[in-house]
Task: structure prediction
Amino acid sequence: MEGFNHSRVSEFVLLGLTDSPELQTFFFVIFSVFYLITMFGNGLILLTVLSTPHLHSPMYFLLSNLSLIDMCLSSFATPKMIMDFFAERKTISFEGCISQIFFLHLFTGTEIVLLISMSFDRYIAICKPLHYSTIMSQRMCLGLVVTSWTVGFLHTTSQLAFTLYLPFCGPNVVDSFFCDLPLVIQLACIDIYVLGIFMISTSGVIALGSFLLLLTSYIIVLVTIKDHSSTGTSKAFSTCTAHFIVVLMFFGPCIFIYVWPFTNFLVDKVLSVFYTIFTPFLNPLIYTLRNQEVKTAVKKILIYYIQLFRVLSQL
Result:
C-alpha cells in the first residue's frame, strides 16, 4: 500500500464506450441483460454439476470451474460499467483501478491455464481412453484447478510489481470502460518502453503461445477422431468443437490487445467487451446447447426448483 503514496493521481477518468445519451441508455439495457444472463447461466451450470452425481467427472469438474471463473471475469468491471452509463463523470479511484487490473489478469491468467487443462482432459479421453481414469484422477483434477489459480495469481502479481510504483503525475484519462494495463501505464510520467516489452512478453506472448499449444492439441484430437467412425467419437468431436469455439473467442481479443499494447485501435474497446462480457455470456450457452447430458441435468434442476417455489408460494 505504500506504493500508492508515490502517486499524485488519486483517481482516473474512464471515457466509457460512448458519449451518446441514446446509446448509453441502449447499452445500459443490453449489458444489464447480458450480465444477469451470464451470472444466471454460469451459476446454473455450477449448481447443476455440483448437485448431479453422474456429472461428477473430470470434464464437468473443469467445466464448473470455468463457469466460476466466467462469473468472476464478468463481475470485475461490468457492474461499474453499467452504473457509469448514467454517471455524468465516470471516475475510479487509484486503488479501484489497480484492483481492476489485478482481478482482470488473475481471472484471465487462471482461465488460460484452465482451458489448457480442459484440452488436456479431452486429449487423454480420446487419444488414451484406456488410461483416462488413471491419469485424470480426482487428485489430478484438483491439482489442475489449483495450478490454474496459482498461475493466475503469479501472473497478475508480476504485472503489478512495477505498476504500483510508477509515477502518475498528470494525465488520468483512460479511454475504456475499465482500467486495462496497456492504457494505464501509458499515463505514467516516465518512459515505459521497457515495461511495455515486459508486458508483451508476459501477457501477449503467453496468450499467443497458449493458443498455439491449444490449437495443436485440438488438431491432434480431431485427427484421432477422424480415424474412427462411431457415436462416441461423434460426441467427442462435438465436445472438442465447443471447446475450440470458447478458446478462439477468449484468446483472439487477448492476443490482439496485448501483442500491440501501445497502439490504440477503435476495435480495442469492442474486443475488451467481447472477452470480458460476451465470452462469459456465451460459454454456458455453448456448453449446454451442445451437451445433452448437461441439458438434461439443467432441465431437472430447473423443474425441481420451479416445483419447490410453487410449493413454498402456496404455504
